[in-house]
């Protein structure tokens, strides 16, 4: 029988994979613009993204349609002459040298695919076009997440269990602070898959918040080095929503950002507030 701590960590890995959606996202799609409730087309949405420094494109990791939409946005920005970079949840920050070498054309495809498979559990075929487009067009990739073993330790035993040597690997801002609205969002998803003890749930929340804080820090650090680039951020919906990484960004900087959320099944969509995004995909 799987132990409760292991179940808790597995929820960390699959929580936002379980958000389901039922529509294709392509350049013929329509989006609801939250600021005024108007319906805009793909071109109108992308035009608005150009004014941001960070553009979060949420995803359900195993939905190819989400990645197709992400790629279309990146292509549109790149072809319009906008300097872009791509922030990726799929690699932890210790993989940054590898991503740099990949974009520079210094790593053969089989070697990069092996590294990807070590870092991320979703099949390579879901992301191949995105990573190949970045390489072929020399678009920088920014590794954002914490190493898997750190996430697992926090999900099982809490942030306080991390030894000093491990904490030194994390940004100085990393903490176990849990934002109440985001915690409530996690609670709803957590309870859909079996309730654990309060302590298990708190550890689960700490792991999610630690990931949000770390990804925010690396995004801001990259922006300081490359302020002219618009960073398109590819993460799960639960990290991309405004209560996720964007909240942590705004705690540190007024950097302008936008959030685009794909169309979700009713149950998942109902767990999000209108204010969680700037655009919602309609069809």
From TrEMBL:
Keywords: Lipoprotein, Signal
Keyword Zinc in record: no
Signal peptide: 1-28
Gene3D superfamilies named among the record's database cross-references: 3.40.50.11550
A matching Pfam family: Cofac_haem_bdg
CDD domains, per the entry: ChanN-like
Residue ranges annotated for the Haem-binding uptake Tiki superfamily ChaN domain, each copy included: 45-248
Record's keyword annotation contains Signal: yes
InterPro entries in UniProt: Cofac_haem-bd_dom
Protein name according to UniProt: ChaN family lipoprotein
Organism (species): Geomobilimonas luticola
